[in-house]
Amino acid sequence: MPASSAPDVATVVLQHARRGLVLQSWLRLVLLAFMVLTVVAVPPERYAPTCALVVAGYGLSVLAVMVWIRTGAPSAVRMAWLAQFVDLAVLAVLTLLTGLATPQSWTSDVLEAGFLLIPVMAATQLRLRVCTAVVVPTVLVYLAAGIVTRVANEEPWSSLLLRTLVLAGVGLGCVGLSRIQRSRVRTIGSLVRDRTHLLAELTDLEQRERRFLSEQLHDGALQYVLAARQDLDEARETGDQAAFTRVEHALAESSQLLRSTVAELHPAVLDRAGLPAALRELARNAGARGGFAVDLDVRNWPDDVRTPADALLYRTARELLSNVTKHAAARSVTVALAHVGSRARLTVTDDGAGIPDGAVQRSAQLGHIGLTSHTLRVEAVGGTLRLLPGPVAGTEVFVDVPWPEA
C-alpha cells in the first residue's frame, strides 16, 4: 500500500471512537427496551401514563442520537457522550416517580438495575475524563435516589450502601477499561505511524539505491575510466611512458572503487572473513569518502564466529558511518565491536558537529527514517540503539543486541 494511502494516527483514533459510539448506541437501545419492558411488565400503580410518556420521549431522543452518530460528523464523536446524561436523568425521574408515588410496587426496584448500564456505556468512550465525568454523577444520582426513596420503601441503610458500593465498583472497573482501551489505541496509532514511515522508506529504497550507485559510479570509477581513455589516446600518439603509467593508475583506482561499491551493496567478505573484516573494509571506504580517520577496535570479537546478528550489525554500522560522512563533518571516528557476555555491542563515536535535540524525530516526521528504521530492527531482536553526546564533541551511538547462537 502506498505510504500516502496509509491511515495516520488521528484517523485510527477516530475510527475506534466511532466504533465505540456505535456500541454505545446499541447499549442505549438495550436500556430503552429495559425501560419499556419494566413499565409494561411491572407497571406502577400510579402515574403509569406519565411513566409511559417519559419512556416514549426518551425513545425519540435515542433515535435522534443514533441518527446523529450515523452521520459520522466530528461533532458527534466529540459531543455524543453528553447524551448519557439524558439516560441518567430519565432513569432518575422514573425511579423517583415510581418510588415515591407507589412505594408498594416493584417498579422502582427494577428500574434501579438500569443504572448499571450507564457506566458500561461510558466505558465505550476512548477518553478517560469523559468516562469519569459520566460514572461519578451516575453513582451520586443512584445514591441520592436511594436516599429519597429509602423511607418510602422501608429499606435499611446497609442495603442502600451495599447497592451503591456495587455500582461504584462497576463504575471504577469501566473507568479502568476505558483507560486500557485508550492505551491500546495509542499503541495501535504508534504502530501505524511506524508502519507508514517504513512503507515510505521501502518505497523510496530502490530509488535511493539507484541514485547511490549512479553517484558512486559517475563520480568515482567512471571518471578514472574516462581519464584512462584520454591517457591511452595520448600514449598511442606520443608513446609517452608516463601516459601508460597514468592509465595503469586510473584502471587500478576504478577497479578499487568498483570493488568497494559492490562490497557495500553485498558484503561477501561478511560471509568469508567475518564481521570484523567486513567492518574494516566498510570503515576504510567511509573514511576515504568522508575525509576522516577511522579507528576500528575489534579485539573483543572472535574472528572465527558467524552469527545471525552479523548482517544487522553490519547494516547498522553502514547507516551510522553514512550519517557521519554526510552530516557530522568529523575528523576522526572510532568503531568498536565487542562480545560481552550474552550481548553483542557496537559503538560508533565521532568528533563532529553532533546531533541537536529532537533532530532524529524531526527527520523522521519529514520521511527520512534511515536511523529510525534501523532502531526498530535492533529493537525487534531485543536490542537497543542509543544516541548520546560524544565524550568531547560529536555523537556516540551504542548498539546492543543479544548474542545469538553461532
Automatic annotation (TrEMBL):
<dbReference type="InterPro" id="IPR036890">
    <property type="entry name" value="HATPase_C_sf"/>
</dbReference>
<dbReference type="Pfam" id="PF02518">
    <property type="entry name" value="HATPase_c"/>
</dbReference>
<protein>
    <submittedName>
        <fullName>Two-component system NarL family sensor kinase</fullName>
    </submittedName>
</protein>
<dbReference type="InterPro" id="IPR003594">
    <property type="entry name" value="HATPase_dom"/>
</dbReference>
<keyword id="KW-0418">Kinase</keyword>
<keyword id="KW-0812">Transmembrane</keyword>
<dbReference type="InterPro" id="IPR050482">
    <property type="entry name" value="Sensor_HK_TwoCompSys"/>
</dbReference>
<feature type="transmembrane region" description="Helical">
    <location>
        <begin position="81"/>
        <end position="100"/>
    </location>
</feature>
<keyword id="KW-0902">Two-component regulatory system</keyword>
<keyword id="KW-0808">Transferase</keyword>
<feature type="domain" description="Histidine kinase/HSP90-like ATPase">
    <location>
        <begin position="309"/>
        <end position="405"/>
    </location>
</feature>
<dbReference type="GO" id="GO:0000160">
    <property type="term" value="P:phosphorelay signal transduction system"/>
</dbReference>
<feature type="transmembrane region" description="Helical">
    <location>
        <begin position="21"/>
        <end position="41"/>
    </location>
</feature>
<feature type="transmembrane region" description="Helical">
    <location>
        <begin position="47"/>
        <end position="69"/>
    </location>
</feature>
<dbReference type="GO" id="GO:0016301">
    <property type="term" value="F:kinase activity"/>
</dbReference>
<keyword id="KW-0472">Membrane</keyword>
<feature type="transmembrane region" description="Helical">
    <location>
        <begin position="130"/>
        <end position="148"/>
    </location>
</feature>
<feature type="transmembrane region" description="Helical">
    <location>
        <begin position="160"/>
        <end position="178"/>
    </location>
</feature>
<keyword id="KW-1133">Transmembrane helix</keyword>
